[in-house]
Amino acid sequence: MSDEQTPAPSPEPGGPEPGGPAPAGPGRGGPEPAEIRFFGTTWVHHDGGYGLRRAGVAVGSLALAAAGAVVLRFAFQGLEIAAVGRFVGILVVAGFAICSALAFRRTWDGFVRRPDPAARNTADTSSQGLMLIGFIGSLLAYFCRTLVEAPGERLHRAEYTAARERYQRRRGARTGNPAAKKKSRTEKRR
């Protein structure tokens, strides 16, 4: 369906006034916002239980991080029972701490900017083990980000705003029906 054939949107509660300019978005022929995990598209207008979702995601990610720390503690106690030595214990703790710090940073960067598509495939496959070992850091990054906004909301909002502006510029450049303009030119020549 082309833009000219899109039906007029029905008035929604709290939406734009009838006859006013309809904002681009879902069901309006414009770009649609990307969904964020656990939030869907509620991040656009902060509706649909957005605050409760943020609180739930924050509590859930913190609880999962705590549960992961307990599991790692049991694993470390298993190493102590096996009497593998102090050096191995230090290596295990340092390894998990470093991997968690790197996973935190990588997850946090994913909320702020998009990685280069060419480098993404190589980096993703090489860091899967790192992210698996440092899962606590990744969960803590998720927790910290939900205290401010939905994880990745700022990035998605910037992309969505840019897409809407591009759409509005394209729509503004194509005002009118080109076929009607062609007819009016031929009538003027007569």
Strand content: under 5%
The H-and-E topology, N to C, reads as: HHHHHHH
Principal-axes shape call: elongated
Helix content: 55-70%
> How far do the termini sit from each other?
35 Å
Largest sheet: none
DSSP helical segment count: 7
Low-confidence stretches: 1-27
List keywords for this structure.
mainly alpha; 7 helices; disordered N terminus
Secondary structure: elements and pairs:
Elements: H1 50-82, H2 86-112, H3 117-126, H4 128-133, H5 135-148, H6 153-173, H7 178-189
Helix pairs in contact: 1-5, 2-5
Structure report:
With 190 residues, the protein is an all-alpha fold. It has helices at 50-82, 86-112, 117-126, 128-133, 135-148, 153-173, 178-189. Residues 1-27 have low confidence and may be disordered.
A few lines on this structure:
This protein has helices at 50-82, 86-112, 117-126, 128-133, 135-148, 153-173, 178-189. With 190 residues, the chain is mainly alpha-helical.
